[in-house]
Design goal:
By secondary structure, the chain is α/β, with parallel strands linked by helices. The protein has two domains: 273 residues, 3-Layer(aba) Sandwich (Aminopeptidase), CATH 3.40.630.10; 126 residues, Aminopeptidase i, Domain 2 (Roll). It is 24% helix and 27% strand. It binds zinc ion (ZN).
């Protein structure tokens, strides 16, 4: 089953090793479609019929299109740009036994540790330098080759390895960078990759990533595996839907926000004012009053799109007995009585109605009543911008592994639903 979006999806995943690259790729796609970049520190002059985007901290982005005839409501889809990974600390080099150089890293988010071991890894992120005018600016970096590896301890030295192992982030998870000759070269390598001198680097946000390319596999090539499917699969599908939608009936808003994996409480996360600031600035730039904004908000709808757990083939008992999403079974509508997911009867009905119209299958997810489960950005975002919101996602396996698995068909379902949503 050939899908025209697959090469684009795999390219997007492979060239987005961290949130900064994901945002930069989306900026480039939008710029190529005549979207105009706005800056938060400059005055906005907006015109109906045009598309714009704005970024915050290089890690979050909001794009929007203003209908030619004005608007009375907003349609928003929000996903997240970050994924669990290991972040490189300051002074990262550690000399061990006079023979090895390791990197000192710490956990970003709640990852599965075991699959990070024994596979080629590399480093990507951003550095901050001063430009010729004396302003601080960021440069993307990607050491695009096999550079690091976290070796396992042999079974002979840990006979209990297969009986459950507690990973110590400071002991077990530090990657090997080189032999002693590598001493003092790591930041030099980062500087060279960014095309600057080492002494110019004033700050950095660098993350490890899995080097394994995306794979389309299975008896009928029905599965896709890659790092960061959570949540770049939703970010990609909602972007395709945003670009393909008519965007004439509502203010169409596409969001991809950072920091979901660490609680969203950064200046660019879902708990920040980024979405609120952007929506209210759009309104005031176009001459709408605050009351107009509140009236529009009351008639608006948001999809919080973050991947969901599919029933695991080896652990079917871990799923709820009556809400059992499967790979390639359709978009997952997520429910939680304690509102870890913000779906309620109204927003579920609105989403089902949308998918019925678009001819897209919908599945449902709830945690087993004796398991806690996760949360996402929908209810957090609602503390800043309160509107009817539904939590949805694409079904996947091995969430928070550096190599996750999802369904090929489901990507297409979200593209179609998003396109219908942005009508
Ligand atoms: Zn997620």
């Amino acid at each position: 089953m050939p899908h025209s979006f697959l090469p684009e999806l795999t390219q997007f995943l492979e060239t987005s090793p961290c949130c900064f690259h994901a945002i930069n790729n989306i900026k480039n796609i939008l710029s190529g479609k005549q979207f105009i970049q706005l800056h938060e520190n400059q005055k906005w002059t907006l015109r109906p019929g045009c598309g714009y985007f704005v970024t915050r901290s290089d890690a979050s982005l909001i794009a929007f299109t203003i209908p030619t005839a004005g608007f009375h409501s907003m349609r928003i889809i929000a996903s997240h740009s970050d994924s669990p990974a290991f972040k490189v600390k300051e002074n990262p080099e550690l000399e061990t036994d006079g023979h090895y150089i390791r990197l000192n890293v710490e956990r970003y988010g709640g990852m599965l540790c075991a699959p990070w071991l024994d596979r080629p890894l590399s480093v990507a992120g951003r550095i901050i330098i001063k430009d010729r005018q004396g302003s601080l600016c960021s440069r993307l970096v990607n050491i695009d080759r096999d550079l690091l590896l976290i070796p396992n301890l042999a079974i002979h030295m840990n006979r209990e390895a297969n009986n459950g192992y507690k990973y110590n982030a400071q002991k077990d998870m530090l990657p090997l960078y080189g032999s002693l000759t590598a001493k003092g070269t790591f930041m030099q390598m980062i500087a060279e990759a960014a095309g600057v001198e080492k002494d110019e680097i004033l700050g950095h946000d660098l993350f490890l990533y899995n080097r394994q390319k995306a794979s389309i596999w299975g008896a009928s090539e029905e599965f896709i595996s890659c790092g960061r499917l959570d949540d770049l699969q939703c970010a990609f599908a909602s972007l395709k839907g945003f670009l393909g939608g008519k965007k004439t009936s509502h203010l169409a808003v596409y969001c991809i926000l950072d920091s979901e994996e660490v609680g969203s409480t950064t200046k660019q996360g879902a708990a920040s004012t980024f979405l609120y600031d952007t929506l209210t600035r759009i309104h005031s730039s176009l001459g709408y009053t605050r009351e107009d904004y509140l009236i529009h908000l009351a008639d608006s709808f948001m999809l919080s799109a973050d991947n969901a757990h599919a029933v695991h083939p080896n652990h079917p008992d871990k799923a709820d007995p009556s809400n059992r999403p499967y790979l390639n079974g359709g978009i997952v509508l997520k429910f939680n009585a304690n509102q870890k997911y913000c779906t309620d009867g109204i927003s579920a009905a609105m989403f089902r109605d949308l998918c019925n119209t678009a001819g897209v299958p919908v599945q449902t997810f709830a945690n087993r009543s004796d398991m806690a489960g996760g949360s996402t950005l929908g209810n957090i975002s609602n503390t800043q911008v309160a509107l009817n919101t539904v939590d949805i996602g694409l079904p996947q396996l091995a969430m928070h592994s550096p190599y996750e698995t999802a369904g090929v068909e489901d990507t297409g379902y979200l593209i179609r639903a998003a396109q219908a949503f942005y009508c």
